Amino acid sequence: MAKPNYNFAKRQRDLAKEQKKEEKLARKKAAAEGTPVENDQNVDAEHDVAQEDADATQTPAPHA
């Protein structure tokens, strides 16, 4: 049975957190300048994929 890769899951969470932080900073900067910022739909899709990967590492495999 394969062991879960906790380092990979942690790295994915950290990358998502950093990306979210950068987006928030960009929104704040744009708001200060008075220009609207578009919400990127691809970010949500990438987050969902990363979350699915993290969930897959946490669920145990069924015994055969």
Automatic annotation (TrEMBL):
Organism the protein comes from: Pseudomonas helleri
Lineage of source species: Bacteria, Pseudomonadati, Pseudomonadota, Gammaproteobacteria, Pseudomonadales
Region (Disordered): 1-64
Name by which UniProt lists this protein: Uncharacterized protein
Biased composition (Basic and acidic residues): 11-25
